[in-house]
Design goal:
The complex is a heterodimer of chains A (133) and B (183). Chain A has 133 residues and is an alpha+beta fold. Chain A contains four helices and five strands; from the N terminus they run ββααβββαα. The relative contact order of chain A is 0.18. Chain B has helices at 2-6, 8-15, 21-38, 42-68, 76-92, 136-148, and strands at residues 96-99, 109-114, 151-159, 168-177. In chain B, helix 3 runs antiparallel to helix 4 (42-68) and helix 4 packs across helix 6 (136-148). Chain B starts with a helix and ends in a 6-residue tail after the last strand. The chains are: A alpha+beta (133), B alpha+beta (183). Chain A binds chain B through residues 101-102, 104-108, 115-118, and chain B through 26, 28-30, 32-33, 36, 121-127, 129.
């Protein structure tokens, strides 16, 4: 699952995708959302100590890991997957670039949920290529 | 004679002061966003953009004529070519083409088409603004410019790349000459 949040933890974008090993049923999807949001505290702690954009692994559960990434303007990315760190880092950087294009759209109000069709499509492609080979 | 008419473009484009494309794109984007917020509906917003363009065009024509030293246009092909081949590269940096479709032969009408509009960079129309003619300022500018040289014209967008078409096409219809009593 991939989540983009603002500094005040308002969700801007959410995308679910398959993990390597299993598919999730609806109960697990709810748990996944819960797990992601509850890892925000750890996210904040890591943010204080880290100087880089990619915060690496911030939490580990039974089957999967949660990675964090913060943009220069304070937007947070949360990725929940069982892929390796390198791939997730690449994914986050490309997603960041795509996000910049959305932000440059003058008709997009900053702070509103991202409904851009192209962004959605591009993220789906990225997930296909990077996180699910 | 053909050569003389086509060459002015390069000389002219180099004489004009340039501005960074992104600055123009972002500034125009901010203007459109503000107009959209202030207008009640899409039609109002379109009209406002067109009016802005009209005012700009009225003043732009003087600069255009001063820099290109073009003599009087003989026929509508001349007018169309001048707008597309000289004015567009000069003011927007776009390579545009003029065409006259068969059904437009009898009327004083022509189409200007171009791709890669710098005003459209990064822009995506949200669902509630699908009817917005984002670059309506260009249509207004053409209308304004023609108005100052005593031609009443109507310009509208037939196709728009922001709405999914592959090219942007503006249709210009020159209706009649302006008499002293108009506006």
């Amino acid at each position: 699952m991939f989540l983009i949040l603002t500094q005040e933890d308002n969700p801007l974008y959410e995308k679910r995708f398959q993990l390597k090993k299993q598919t999730l049923n609806s109960q697990q999807i709810l748990n996944a959302q819960f797990a992601l949001h509850s890892s925000l505290d750890i996210f904040d702690e890591k943010l204080k100590t880290s100087k880089e954009l990619f915060l690496k692994e911030i939490e580990q559960k039974q089957d999967y890991k949660i990675y964090g990434y913060v943009t220069s303007s304070g937007l947070r990315f949360l990725v929940m997957t069982d892929q390796d760190e390198e791939k997730v880092k690449g994914f986050c950087q490309q997603a960041h670039e795509q996000l910049i294009k959305v932000l440059m759209n003058p008709l997009y109000q900053i702070g509103q949920p991202i409904v851009s069709f192209y962004f959605d499509y591009y993220i789906s492609q990225l997930i296909q290529n990077k996180l699910n080979p | 004679m053909q050569q003389q008419r086509k060459n002015p473009t390069k000389a002219v484009v180099s004489k004009i002061e340039k501005i960074n494309t992104e600055v123009l794109t972002l500034t125009y984007g901010a203007i459109v966003a503000q107009i959209v917020r202030e207008s009640e509906n899409v039609i109002d917003a379109n009209e406002q953009l067109e009016k802005m363009g009209f005012n700009i065009g009225q003043r732009l024509i003087d600069e255009f004529l001063a820099k290109t030293e073009i003599k009087v246009c003989k026929d509508k092909v001349d007018v169309a070519e001048n707008i597309a081949k000289n004015a567009f590269p000069m003011f927007l940096g776009i390579q545009a083409d003029a065409e006259i479709l068969p059904e437009q032969e009898k009327l004083f009408q022509f189409n200007i088409h171009f791709s890669d509009n710098p005003l459209n960079d990064f822009v995506e129309l949200p669902e509630n603004l699908q009817g917005l003619n984002y670059s309506n300022i260009i249509a207004g500018a053409i209308r304004g410019a023609l108005s100052t040289i005593h031609w009443i014209a109507e310009c509208r967008f037939i196709k728009d790349q922001l709405k999914g078409d592959d090219k942007t096409i503006i249709q210009v219809e020159m209706k009649r000459e302006k008499f002293k009593d108009d506006d």
